[in-house]
Specification:
Helix content: 25-40%
Number of domains: 2
Strand content: 25-35%
Shape: rod-shaped
CATH topology of the largest domain: SH3 type barrels
CATH class of the largest domain: Mainly Beta
Distance between the termini: 91 Å
Structural class: alpha+beta
Largest sheet: 5 strands, antiparallel
Number of helices: 4
Strand order of the largest sheet: 4-3-2-1-5
Length: 140
């Protein structure tokens, strides 16, 4: 190592009398525009978010759901109150999640194969996992 800088090594850091030192947060903000990993945190969070696979229903479960849909059809004028558990596909990655909604059924759409709830929610019948409600108590 060259000895030509030995006279400066022990000197204190110079401080300007004209310009006060900048706060660290402001100094860091100057370089935020150069952040090479913008959006990286969101991408990591998305990758870590878990989804479920859609489960295949047994023949017994399919028969039970079809029987309960028939009961709903018989009482459709009353807009029966039911709870529907169904598979909601994820829009960004494979899989999805099972959700349960409760409300009144407005109609069963045979063309679209969907349950139309009174609040406007449309649930594809192929995604239904379970139907529950007081309406089904006398039919089992």
């Amino acid at each position: 190592m060259r000895k030509s800088y030995n006279d400066m090594v022990g000197l204190p850091h110079p401080v300007s009398r004209r310009h006060p030192p900048m706060a660290r947060i402001k100094r860091a903000a100057q370089f935020a525009a150069f952040d090479a990993l913008t959006g990286f945190g969101a991408a990591i969070a998305e990758a870590g978010r878990e989804t479920e696979e859609k489960l295949e229903l047994s023949e017994d479960m399919i028969d039970m759901i079809n029987a309960r849909l028939a009961v709903i059809g018989q009482h459709i004028n009353e807009e029966p109150s039911v709870s529907v558990t169904y598979f909601l596909p994820d829009k960004k990655k494979p899989g999805g999640q099972y959700v349960t909604v409760s409300g009144n059924v407005k109609r069963l759409d045979g063309i679209k194969c969907a349950i139309i709830m009174a609040d406007g929610k449309t649930i594809p019948m192929e995604d239904v996992r379970y139907l529950d409600g007081d309406l089904f108590r006398g039919y089992e």
